[in-house]
């Protein structure tokens, strides 16, 4: 349960970690942060995003935290926790913002101290720019928030994770198992990024930007991509993503067959089905 006295610690002050800090501080909560980039800590302090900050693990910050949010790359987070979990006091709740879950939650819950609890969560928000200087809690308001509990999580932890989503004003807060999360994220997030990247790399016309319309720009907005983070996410969830790529390729080939046969009724039916499904997003 979160009260007005709850203290948060953000580990990783990038775009999402900074947006958490900004949003929670505006709600009146005590927020500290740890980030290896001293300039990011200085910016957050100077702009009131956090109360205290450090460029390395600091017992003064870790032991006073009630809830710790890890906004790090998955493998970096796992290594950080392996090395520093002794710095947290018993009863601390740990959560994250990672875009994959099975290869994060299972690993962390497998080695974490018994007097600490880790519950996965995923804010489905972002921008094409990075860093705490671009943080903005407004990115959460039209976004979805997913909590990924396991049998090792207490009802209190699940409730608290959901409260974080509501405090930050996400549009919806839902629950999925880590496996169900990775399957659906492989489709709605990772596949869409794969498509956007492929669109930008399948045509090498040097003047392409002079010919495109809104549809191409909309489809490729997310092709401006953080290569280190997304390559890690793709590889950690590679089997799910491969299956989604195969499914998408199958639909493209089905459309290709309609074109070869000059099957206008089949094309129209596919377009009608697409329009009906997309309309559900606008309700």
Automatic annotation (TrEMBL):
<feature type="domain" description="Prephenate/arogenate dehydrogenase">
    <location>
        <begin position="6"/>
        <end position="283"/>
    </location>
</feature>
<dbReference type="InterPro" id="IPR046826">
    <property type="entry name" value="PDH_N"/>
</dbReference>
<dbReference type="InterPro" id="IPR046825">
    <property type="entry name" value="PDH_C"/>
</dbReference>
<dbReference type="InterPro" id="IPR036291">
    <property type="entry name" value="NAD(P)-bd_dom_sf"/>
</dbReference>
<dbReference type="GO" id="GO:0070403">
    <property type="term" value="F:NAD+ binding"/>
</dbReference>
<dbReference type="Pfam" id="PF02153">
    <property type="entry name" value="PDH_N"/>
</dbReference>
<keyword id="KW-0560">Oxidoreductase</keyword>
<dbReference type="InterPro" id="IPR050812">
    <property type="entry name" value="Preph/Arog_dehydrog"/>
</dbReference>
<dbReference type="GO" id="GO:0004665">
    <property type="term" value="F:prephenate dehydrogenase (NADP+) activity"/>
</dbReference>
<protein>
    <submittedName>
        <fullName>Prephenate dehydrogenase</fullName>
    </submittedName>
</protein>
<dbReference type="Pfam" id="PF20463">
    <property type="entry name" value="PDH_C"/>
</dbReference>
<comment type="pathway">
    <text>Amino-acid biosynthesis.</text>
</comment>
<dbReference type="InterPro" id="IPR003099">
    <property type="entry name" value="Prephen_DH"/>
</dbReference>
<dbReference type="GO" id="GO:0006571">
    <property type="term" value="P:tyrosine biosynthetic process"/>
</dbReference>
<dbReference type="GO" id="GO:0008977">
    <property type="term" value="F:prephenate dehydrogenase (NAD+) activity"/>
</dbReference>
<dbReference type="InterPro" id="IPR008927">
    <property type="entry name" value="6-PGluconate_DH-like_C_sf"/>
</dbReference>
<comment type="similarity">
    <text>Belongs to the prephenate/arogenate dehydrogenase family.</text>
</comment>
């Amino acid at each position: 349960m979160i009260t007005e006295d709850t203290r948060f610690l953000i580990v990783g002050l990038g775009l999402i970690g900074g947006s958490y800090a900004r949003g929670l501080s505006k709600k009146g909560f005590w927020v500290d942060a740890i980030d290896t980039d001293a300039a990011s800590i200085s910016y957050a302090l100077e702009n009131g995003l956090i109360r205290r900050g450090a460029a390395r693990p600091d017992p003064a910050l870790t032991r006073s935290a009630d809830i710790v949010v890890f906004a790090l790359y998955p493998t970096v987070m796992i290594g950080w926790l392996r090395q520093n979990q002794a710095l947290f006091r018993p009863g601390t709740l740990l959560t994250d913002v990672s875009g994959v879950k099975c290869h994060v939650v299972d690993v962390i819950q497998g080695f974490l101290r018994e007097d600490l609890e880790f519950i996965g969560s995923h804010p489905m928000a972002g921008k094409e720019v990075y860093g705490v200087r671009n943080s903005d809690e407004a990115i959460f308001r039209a976004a979805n928030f997913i909590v990924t509990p396991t049998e090792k999580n207490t009802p209190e932890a699940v409730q608290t994770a959901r409260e974080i989503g509501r405090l930050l004003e996400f549009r919806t807060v839902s629950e999925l198992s880590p496996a169900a999360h990775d399957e659906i994220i492989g489709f709605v997030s990772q596949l869409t990024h794969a498509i956007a990247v492929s669109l930008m790399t399948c045509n090498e016309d040097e003047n392409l930007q002079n010919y495109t319309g809104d549809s191409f720009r909309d489809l490729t907005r997310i092709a401006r991509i953080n290569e280190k983070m997304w390559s890690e996410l793709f590889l950690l969830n590679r089997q799910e993503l491969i299956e989604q790529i195969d499914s998408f390729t199958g639909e493209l080939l089905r459309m290709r067959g309609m074109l070869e046969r000059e099957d206008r009724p089949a094309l129209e039916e596919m377009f009608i089905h697409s329009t009906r499904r997309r309309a559900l997003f606008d309700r």
